[in-house]
Design brief:
alpha+beta, five-stranded antiparallel beta sheet, 17 helices, 24% strand, C8orf32 fold, Centrosomal protein of 76 kDa, seven-stranded antiparallel beta sheet, Immunoglobulin-like, CEP76_C, 4 domains
Length: 645
């Protein structure tokens, strides 16, 4: 907790007055003299600060000082008194809360040989993310170790719509788990999903004093989902405590009933899906080769219907339009699921929480998130599963207009393409639309309540007609069958939908920091070439409008503001001088990585290494921040110099 300067001065004065009152200087002098006397001997050595502190502790000086210090005045500076945690947090006593504490980690054997980081040394870190009933939390990053120092407390509100204080019976029926996501961030800021775990917190309902403590074994992800990643010690405490606790048998019976109910629904859906698939194959033999994806594995190796990965997701005031949503999704990095050894693509669709916490994922993760956001904006949106160039499997988003128009959205780039099908029965010389999209085939489309398989003679996208009501073109699954396993709350095995988090990054501060680092790197690079560097701050400032226009164009698809930028540059560059500029876009804020990438471009290198008469350099950085701290980073290098013929 930080204090304003005037309060900090007041706090220092309170501590100073207290130390004077107990004559701390006199006591320190006595201990110092005594320690020096004791140290006079044949094995005489120099007296260190640590020796002196130990002597103060032995004499009880430090304990006396802390015991006599009254914290009432100090507490007033912070605007609070020293009370139990729930009172400090200003919790409504009429609402039930769950205080979840992580008390440390152990058995993270992958980091067994990792040395302890030196003070100030950059090292890999663990960060723990939590989601519970529309609330999200994150821990402080801690150094990766076999026994990581993960010690955090999270206050989760257990609220029931229309009910203030949730009693034991109503809480027993709340099957929402606490979703733990553990992320490792390496020294180059690359993130890796370590574990995704669903904690059933209801064991606390049978614990004396509404408190319990236990170990949670975290498993790996993907191909390592059966291998333990590590263990967390977790403590749970209900506030206010329950007047009467439930028996452990009641809780285990409830959990068993929920599992049985979910397993039965999943079994019935599997029986239906097999029958539906047989009917689809009977339509025409070529359907066997189409990419019809009914189930997909998540990060824990659990097979779920693909429709369960799409939900109606409203972003509140964090995103303003479907196009801005597409821009946000495209800023989350693209990375295929890691594979140990060969064998091609690893099958892994991530839960939304794991995808957002990691900040990157495969094309399916991007497409399902974009489709969920488009549905939230009231659009008729679907995820398409098919192939792009060279038959590479791919997923993208399709939206249907009320006029029947079909638009493809590439979730990795935010590009939009209008689809006009080619008529195979048209005369040879008749003009046909030329497709601009990169997609080759489409096997199926789906959203949160619809699944349709392509049963047209050809699955080529350019020939497809996306008339979903025409049963001779698209075979639909029963909406009731899908609802039984994919609708929110239909089964306890369905991961809860997390809300988007507002950005915590200050765009102005991030832009300034990165710009200073880029200036330093440019100056050092030119120094190595025996070139002086003179910056033109006014020219640097003028570059801002161009970067703003570039980001606006990426968001809206509309270009504007270029005329004003060109006019300002003409005024800033004197007659007889030449101006050169080079803009570039990144998804990260690592200055050295960005500069190394820039220098690979001959245009940028020409500007950075510019030689000539009256050379002036400029660089401008703009960091545009979106939900989840997703960043669009624009950097523009420029120079002006006198032209010499």
């Amino acid at each position: 907790m930080s204090l304003p300067p005037e309060k900090a001065s007041e706090l220092k004065q309170i501590i100073h007055n207290h130390l004077l009152k107990m004559d701390i200087h006199g006591k320190i002098r006595e201990v110092l003299a005594e320690t020096v006397r004791d140290d006079q001997g044949p094995a005489r050595r120099s007296l260190s600060e640590a020796d002196f502190l130990r002597a103060l502790q032995r004499r009880g000086i430090i304990d006396d000082m802390m015991k006599d210090l009254h914290f009432t005045q100090v507490a007033q500076l912070f605007g609070c008194s020293f009370r139990p945690i729930f009172q400090i947090a200003n919790i409504d006593p009429s609402r039930r809360c769950l205080y979840l504490q992580v008390l440390g980690g152990k058995a993270f054997l992958e980091h067994l040989q990792e040395p302890d980081p030196l003070p100030g040394q950059v090292c890999s870190t663990f960060t723990l993310y939590l989601h519970f009933r529309n609330q999200r939390f994150r821990s402080k990053p801690v150094p990766c170790a076999c026994e990581p120092d993960l010690k955090e407390g999270f206050l989760l509100e257990i609220h029931r719509d229309g009910i203030g204080m949730a009693d034991a019976t109503s809480m027993l029926s709340m099957c929402d788990p606490v979703h733990f996501v553990l992320i490792k961030t390496d020294t180059s800021s690359e993130t890796m999903l370590v574990s995704s775990y669903f904690l059933d917190w209801r064991t606390v309902l049978s614990s004396p004093s509404s408190k319990t403590c236990f170990a949670v074994e975290l498993m790996g992800v993907g191909s390592e989902s059966k291998v333990p990643a590590g263990v967390l010690t977790v403590s749970l405490e209900l506030y206010p405590p329950l007047p009467e606790i439930l028996s452990a048998d009641i809780i285990s019976t409830q959990q068993s009933l929920e599992r049985q109910r979910a397993a039965e629904k999943e079994r019935l859906f599997l029986v239906y899906a097999k029958q539906w698939w047989r009917e689809f194959l009977e339509i025409r033999p070529s359907n066997q080769t189409k990419l019809v994806k009914i189930f997909a594995q998540d990060e824990n190796g659990v097979n779920r219907p693909v429709c369960s990965y799409v939900r109606v997701l409203r972003a509140g005031r964090l995103l303003e339009s479907p196009r801005q949503a597409a821009r946000f999704v495209s800023l989350l990095a693209h990375e295929k699921a890691p594979v140990v050894g060969g064998g091609g693509k690893q099958e892994q669709w991530c839960t939304l929480m794991a995808f957002l916490c990691r900040g990157k994922g495969d094309c399916e993760d991007h497409a399902t998130l974009l489709c969920s956001l488009q549905l939230g904006f009231g659009m008729d949106a679907y995820v398409c599963v098919g192939t792009k160039a060279k038959g590479v499997p791919h997923a993208w988003v399709l939206t249907r207009g009320t006029d029947g128009s079909i638009t493809f959205w590439e979730s990795l780039t935010a590009h939009r393409y209008l689809h006009r099908p080619i008529d195979p029965d048209a005369p040879p010389l008749a003009p046909q639309p030329k497709p601009s999209y990169p997609y080759q085939t489409v096997g199926c489309v789906f959203n949160h309540q619809t699944f349709l398989a392509n049963c047209q003679p050809s699955d080529a996208v350019e020939l497809c007609v996306f008339d979903f009501q025409n049963q001779s073109r698209w075979k639909a699954m029963s909406e009731e069958a899908l609802k039984s396993v994919c609708a929110p709350g239909s089964t306890t095995s369905l991961p809860p939908l997390p809300p988007l988090c507002s950005p915590s990054l200050d765009p102005a501060a991030a832009s300034n920091q990165l710009e200073l680092e880029m200036r330093y790197l440019v100056s050092e690079h030119r120094k190595d070439l025996d070139l002086a560097t003179v910056w033109d701050d006014h020219l640097s400032y003028l570059l801002s409008s161009a970067l703003s226009a570039y980001e606006l164009e990426r968001c809206t698809g509309v270009s504007c503001g270029n005329e004003e930028f060109q006019d300002a540059v003409r005024r800033a560059v004197p007659d007889g001088h030449t101006f050169k500029g080079f803009p570039i876009h990144f998804l990260h804020r690592n200055a050295r990585r960005a500069f190394a990438t820039c220098l690979r471009s001959p245009f940028c290198e020409e500007i950075v290494c510019c030689r000539g008469d009256h050379v002036r350099l400029a660089v401008r950085v703009r960091v545009f921040v979106y939900p989840e701290n997703a960043c669009a980073v624009w950097i523009m290098f420029a120079c002006k110099y006198r032209s010499v013929l």
